[in-house]
From TrEMBL:
GO biological process: cellular response to starvation; negative regulation of autophagy; positive regulation of TORC1 signaling
Catalytic activity reported: GTP + H2O = GDP + phosphate + H(+)
Region (Disordered): 1-30, 277-323
Native source species: Collybia nuda
Ranges of Low complexity composition bias in the record: 1-16, 289-321
Name of the molecule in the record: GTP-binding protein
Amino acid composition bias (Polar residues), ranges on this chain: 21-30
Amino acid sequence: MVNGPPSYAATSTTTPIVNRPQLNGHRTASSDAVTRTKILLLGLRRAGKTSIQQVLFNNLPPKQTFYLETTMRTVKHAFDTVIPLEIWDCPGNITVETLGAPLSHFSTMIFVIDIRDLYNNPISKLVEFIVAAYRENPNMSLEVFVHKAEKLQEDDKIENFRQIHERVSDRLLDISPEYEQIQLNFHLTSVYDHSLHEAFSKVLHKLVESLPYLEDLLNVFCANSQSPKAFLFDTTSRLYIATDASPVDSATHNLCCDYLQMLNSFGSLYKSATPHSRKPLPFTPPPSASSTSSLSPVPPRSSSSTSPGTPTSSTTRLTPHPSKDLFYPSAATSLHPSTPGTTLTYHLITSQLALLALLPTSVYEGRRGLLEFNVVFFREGVQEICEVEKETRDGR
C-alpha cells in the first residue's frame, strides 16, 4: 500500500455558449467530440448558482464565493466524471424564450432559491419553467435547491424550507390539477457544509444509467469485506457516484468527504518522477562467450546485425521499461482508537473515481490481503462498466 493519492485539480472549463476542450488535469476530453448530459442551473440574481458550480467543480473555497461576479449571460461548464456533464449556468433574468435551446435537450433542471429571499418572484419563475418543462420534456428531473441554509437558525431553516415547498405545490395546483403529479425534489443546501455535495450526488444518480451495476459491485464488495458502508466518489468534485444498499448516514458521508479533501490537498507531495525525466542506463557489453553465465544480460538484436552473437557497441543504451498506465494509491486512517474501532480506507479505482469504505479495524489489520484482493476485482468491474458507458455514448 502506498499512502497519499495524487491531488486532482479541478478541470471544469468555463466557456460562454461555445464549448472548448478542457486543457488541464486528467479530464481532457473535447466537449465537441463527446455527447454530454446537460444540466440546467437556474435561479434569480445572487441566489448562489455560480457559487454552487465553482465550489463543486472548481474547488473554490466557500469563503471566496462572496467575490464572484454576477452571471450576465449563459455560461457552459464541461465536466467529466463517470459521465460527461455540461452545466448551463444561466443569468437571473433568463426566460424559456431566451434560453437559446429547447428544454428537451436537458436531462435535469436545478432551480436555486435563496432561503432568505422573498418567495414570490423566485417561485413564479420556478413555476414558469416547471410548466414549460412538463410540456416539452415530461421525463426531465426537476430539482429545487433551497440554498444558503447556513444563514438561518435550525428552526427558521426548517420552517422556511417547508413554506417554499408548500407554496410551489399550491401554485402548480392552482394552474392545473394535472401538475399535482409532477415529481419535484427539494434539497436544503449550503456551500459551507457537505449538504451541497450530498444533494448534487442525488441529482447525479438519476443521470448515471449504469448506477444499478455500480451499486451491485459495492454490495458484493461490502459483503465480502465485512464493510458496513462504502462509497464510490468522484475524486475532484467529491460527489459520490454510487453507494451500497445500506442507508446513507450524513455523518459518515461528511467524514468521507473530509478525508478525500485532505488526501487531495496533500497528494501533490507524493508525485514521482516520470520515465521521461529518468536518464537511461548505459549498457555494458557481455563478456566473452566462454565466460557468459545465464544471469548475464543479453544484448538487444539490431535489424542490421550480421550475426546473433555479435556484441553491440559500448554506446548502446537500454530503453527504459514503459511505466504503468495508471498508479493506484491507497490510504487508511483509524477513526476510533477504542476496541473494536473503525478504519476508513481509500483506494483509487480509475483516474476519476475512488472507493472509500468503512471497515472494522480488526478486519483491516487481520485480513488485509483479502481486502486488497476484493479491491482488485471491484476495480476491474468498475473500469469495465466505465468503458461500456463510454463506448455507448460514443456510438450515439
